[in-house]
Automatic annotation (TrEMBL), chain A:
Name by which UniProt lists this protein: Glutamine amidotransferase type-2 domain-containing protein
PROSITE patterns recorded: GATASE_TYPE_2 (PS51278)
Domain Glutamine amidotransferase type-2: residue ranges: 12-365
Coiled coil location: none
InterPro entries cross-referenced by the UniProt entry: GATase_2_dom, Glu_synth_lsu_1, Ntn_hydrolases_N
Annotated organism of origin: Desulfotomaculum copahuensis
Active site: 12 (for gatase activity)
Automatic annotation (TrEMBL), chain B:
Pfam families: GXGXG
Stretches assigned to the Glutamate synthase alpha subunit C-terminal domain: 13-184
InterPro entries listed in its UniProt record: Archaeal_gltB, Glu_synth_asu_C, Glu_synth_asu_C_sf, Glu_synth_lsu_3
Organism per entry: Desulfotomaculum copahuensis
Name assigned to this protein: Glutamate synthase alpha subunit C-terminal domain-containing protein
GO molecular function list: oxidoreductase activity
C-alpha cells in the first residue's frame, strides 16, 4: 500500500444484530445503531458485514475487492480467471455521499473454483483452503489489490468515513441480511485507509473490533507458520485468521476458541477441578501464541454465529440484549435501544466470557 | 418546569439548553426520549432536578456540581466522572468506571454495576463522595480508592453468586467499602483487610444507606438483616517505600 497516511492518535464503536431465525433485515437499522455512537469514531473508518445478502449466488464465493488502480484490477482479474469461473463481475453499487471522498475502485465477483485447480499433486484440496490461499496471494503479491471479503452469501462494505456515511455510500438500505455487524473507527496505532477499515473478513468470518491487540506481533508470527499473511496493517486482522485456524482448520469448538484467545488467568485455573484444570492448562500451553493481549471488545460473525468477546479485564465496553429472535451486541446500550426500544433482556458482557448467538436448526438462509 | 423531548437531539444542543435554562433560574427538568446523549448534567453548578426518561449516554454527571439527576432506565459508562457535588439515582444498572476520580456528591444505582467502580475516588475534609450499588459489581471495585464511601449490597444476588469480582480494593489507600454479606478472601486486593462495623459505621450506614433505601422504596431494616462488613486499607501509603528502599 502507499505510505501516505498520517497517523492520527486518537475509541471505536461496534454494533451487531442477528436474527437467530434467519429472518433478513434491511441495512437501515444497523446504520442507525452505529450512527448513534458517532462520537466514538473520527471519520477515518467505517464498515459493515452482512450475511444472507446474495441468495441468488449463495454457493458462490463473493469476493469484494478494493483496487488502488486499473492496473491492480487487471492483475487481480488475471489471477482470478486462472483459478475461478467468474459467473459475475460488477462494480459494487455506490451512491455519491457527502463525507465520502476519493473511493478506490470497488468491485465484486461471484466465483466458483475451477475443479481442476483443486487437484494438487493428485490430491483434491479443500475448497475453503483454496480460497484462503487465493486471498493471501492477492493481498500479499498483487500491488494495490485487497480482498475485503471472500465468503459465501455474505459481504463486507467498508471504507474511510463515518460509518453512517459509508453505509449510505454502499446503499445498504438495498440489502437484506440476517446478521449485520458494524464498526465506527477511531484508528490509534495504524493508518486510516480503505483496506484497513473494519470488518476484517476471511471466508465467511468477519470481525469488528474496539480496542487494540497488543500481542499483534506474536499472533502474526504464529499465524504465518500456518500460511496466513497479515498485510492489512491493522491488528484486528489476526482475530479473523485465528478463528479460521482454530475453528475451521483445527475443529476447536467456538467457546474454546474464545477461551484460547482470552484464557482464564492461571490463578483461576488453579482453583478449577482437575478435569477443567487440565483442559485450560493445555489450551494455554498449545495456544499461548494465539492469546490476545490488550484491551478489546469484538464481534465475530460467520454464517451461523454471532460471537461477542471482551478482553480478560474488561478494558472495553459491550452490552448485549435479546428481543424475540433478535440478539444485539453493541458498545453502548443506547445503540441497541435506538433500533429496538423494548428489549426482553439486557446485560453487560463480562470480561473474557464469550456470548455466542447461534442460528436455529433448520433456519432457511 | 421545563420538559424537553430529547429524541434525536445532539448532546451538545441538549446540554446547552439545560445549562442556559438553569442559569436563567429554571430548577425542574424532565427529559423524555433520551437515548445515548452524553454529559447530561456536566457543568451544571446549582441544585436543579433533572429527570431522565431513557438511557443517558456516557459521562452522565461528569464534573457535576450540584444537580439531582434521576434516571428511569439503565445508564452507561463513566457516570459521575470527577463529580464534585450532587446526587445521581439510577433505577436500573450502570456500566464501567462509575464514579471515576469522584470527589464529592452521591451516586445510587439500583442494580448491578460494572468494572472499576470508584476507581481513584478521593475525599478532602467535608467533601466525601458516596457510591452505593444495590446489585453486584465487576472486578476492581474500589481500585486505587483514596477516600470516600462505597457500599455494595448484592440485593439481587442468587445463592452461589459472588457479590463482587476479583481485585476488590486493589491499591486502595483511603476511604471505606461496606459490603452486605461476605466475599472470598482471594478476591481482595493485598492492600485491604476486613473489619466489623463500629458505632461510627452505623451512623454512616443510617445516613446514606437510609437515603438509598428511600430512593428505591426499600425497607432499611430488611436490608440490614444481612450482616455487613467493611474493607479499609491497611496502609495509607502502600507504595510509599516502592522507590525508597
Amino acid at each position: 500500500m502507499q505510505q501516505e497516511f498520517e497517523r492520527i492518535p486518537s475509541g471505536c464503536a461496534i454494533s451487531g444484530i442477528m436474527s437467530t431465525k434467519g429472518r433478513r433485515m434491511n441495512g437501515e437499522a444497523i446504520i442507525r445503531s452505529i450512527a448513534l455512537m458517532h462520537e466514538r469514531s473520527n471519520g477515518l473508518g467505517g464498515g459493515f458485514a452482512a450475511y444472507g445478502i446474495y441468495p441468488d449466488f449463495k454457493d458462490h464465493y463473493a469476493f469484494h475487492m478494493i483496487y488502488h488502480s486499473e492496473q491492480s484490477k487487471m492483475d487481480a482479474e488475471a489471477f482470478l480467471e486462472e483459478n475461478f469461473i467468474i459467473d459475475r463481475s460488477e462494480p459494487i453499487p455506490t451512491r455519491v455521499t457527502p463525507g465520502i471522498t476519493d473511493p478506490p475502485i470497488l468491485w465484486r465477483y461471484f466465483l466458483q473454483i475451477k475443479p481442476k485447480r483443486l487437484i494438487v499433486f493428485g490430491r483434491v484440496d479443500s475448497p475453503r483452503a483454496f480460497v484462503v490461499n487465493a486471498v493471501m496471494t492477492i493481498n500479499n503479491s498483487i500491488p494495490g489489490a485487497f480482498v475485503a471479503s471472500s465468503g459465501q452469501n455474505m459481504g463486507a462494505f467498508k471504507g474511510v468515513g463515518f460509518p453512517e456515511d459509508i453505509g449510505r455510500f454502499y446503499r445498504l438500505d438495498e440489502y437484506e441480511a440476517y446478521i449485520w455487524t458494524s464498526h465506527g473507527r477511531f484508528p490509534t496505532n495504524t493508518p486510516g485507509w480503505w483496506g484497513g477499515a473494519h470488518p476484517f473478513c476471511l471466508l465467511d468470518w468477519s470481525v469488528v473490533h474496539n480496542g487494540e491487540i497488543s500481542s499483534y506481533g506474536i499472533n502474526k508470527r504464529y499465524l504465518e507458520m500456518f500460511g496466513y499473511c497479515c498485510e492489512l496493517q491493522t491488528d484486528t486482522e489476526v482475530v479473523a485468521y485465528l478463528f479460521d485456524l482454530l475453528h475451521r482448520q483445527q475443529k476447536v469448538p467456538l467457546r474454546l476458541v474464545c477461551q484460547a484467545l482470552a484464557p482464564p488467568f492461571w490463578k483461576d485455573i488453579d482453583m478449577m477441578d482437575e478435569a477443567q484444570r487440565q483442559m485450560y492448562t493445555a489450551i494455554r500451553q498449545v495456544y499461548g501464541p494465539g492469546m490476545l493481549n490488550g484491551p478489546f471488545s469484538f464481534v465475530v460473525a460467520s454464517s451461523r454465529y454471532m460471537i461477542g468477546l471482551n478482553d480478560r479485564i474488561k478494558l472495553r465496553p459491550m452490552t448485549c440484549a435479546v428481543k424475540d429472535d433478535l440478539v444485539f451486541m453493541a458498545s453502548e446500550e443506547s445503540a441497541i435501544r435506538e433500533i429496538s426500544p423494548d428489549l426482553d433482556r439486557v446485560w453487560t458482557a463480562k470480561a473474557g466470557e464469550p456470548i455466542i448467538a447461534e442460528l436455529e436448526e433448520g433456519a432457511a438462509v | 418546569m421545563m420538559q424537553i423531548d430529547a429524541r434525536g437531539m445532539y448532546y451538545r444542543d441538549l446540554n446547552k439548553m439545560i445549562k442556559e435554562a438553569a442559569w436563567a433560574g429554571e430548577t425542574e427538568f424532565i427529559l423524555d426520549n433520551v437515548n445515548g446523549q452524553r454529559y447530561i448534567g456536566t457543568g451544571v453548578d446549582r441544585k436543579v432536578n433533572i429527570t431522565i426518561n431513557g438511557v443517558p449516554g456516557n459521562d452522565l454527571a461528569a464534573f457535576a456540581n450540584g444537580p439531582v439527576i434521576t434516571v428511569n432506565a439503565n445508564a452507561q459508562d463513566a457516570i459521575g466522572n470527577t463529580m464534585n457535588d450532587g446526587l445521581v439515582v439510577v433505577h436500573g444498572l450502570a456500566g464501567d468506571v462509575l464514579g471515576y476520580a469522584m470527589r464529592g456528591g452521591r451516586i445510587y444505582i439500583k442494580d448491578d454495576v460494572g468494572y472499576r467502580v470508584g476507581i481513584h475516588m478521593k475525599e478532602y475534609r467535608r467533601q466525601v463522595p458516596v457510591i452505593i450499588a444495590g446489585g453486584r459489581a465487576g472486578d476492581f471495585f474500589g481500585e486505587y480508592m483514596a477516600g470516600g464511601i462505597m457500599m455494595l449490597l448484592g440485593l439481587n444476588r442468587k445463592p452461589g453468586q459472588p457479590l463482587a469480582g476479583d481485585y476488590l480494593g486493589t491499591g486502595m489507600h483511603g476511604g471505606v467499602i461496606y459490603l452486605r454479606g461476605e466475599v472470598a478472601a482471594y478476591r481482595l486486593g493485598k492492600e485491604v483487610a476486613v473489619f466489623a462495623l463500629d458505632d461510627g459505621d452505623e451512623k454512616t450506614l443510617q445516613k446514606y444507606l437510609g437515603e438509598f433505601c428511600d430512593c428505591f422504596g426499600l425497607d432499611y431494616n430488611q436490608v440490614r438483616e444481612e450482616k455487613f462488613c467493611k474493607l479499609v486499607p491497611v496502609s495509607h501509603r502502600p507504595y510509599g517505600r516502592l522507590y525508597a528502599g
